[in-house]
Design brief:
Order of helices and strands: EEEEEEEH
Radius of gyration: 23 Å
Strand content: 25-35%
Length: 106
């Protein structure tokens, strides 16, 4: 709540401000293979990096809670799974080459 007063004999003005809620939106899902890690490639710089994810519990009635991984996505990034960084770089090269072929045919 915010209270402001104007100079003079007027009543104070009261403004009620709601706090802004951060909304989460499901963009997509990806199933990781056993032993694989999640990597991302930045399409503007070409940088390949391993992504961190948070484990979130999803409550269910009459069942044990499910665990789900959540990743905060960023613009101009493509996400994929790979066993290690060496394989992730190979996979990223295939993605970039495939996109170049798509752009060149149009």
């Amino acid at each position: 709540m915010k209270v402001t007063t104007n100079e003079g004999p007027q009543e104070p003005i009261v403004e009620v401000v709601k706090p802004v809620r951060k909304e989460k939106k499901l963009v997509g899902s990806k199933r990781l293979k056993k032993g694989h890690k999640l990597f991302s490639i930045n399409m503007s710089t070409g940088e390949v990096a391993q992504k961190k994810y948070d484990m979130v519990k999803i409550p269910e009635l009459n069942k044990p809670d499910k665990l789900r991984m959540e990743v905060i996505t960023e613009e101009n990034h493509i996400y994929f799974s790979a066993l290690n960084i060496k394989n992730a770089i190979k996979h990223a090269r295939k993605i970039v080459n495939g996109l170049e072929k798509v752009v060149s045919t149009q």
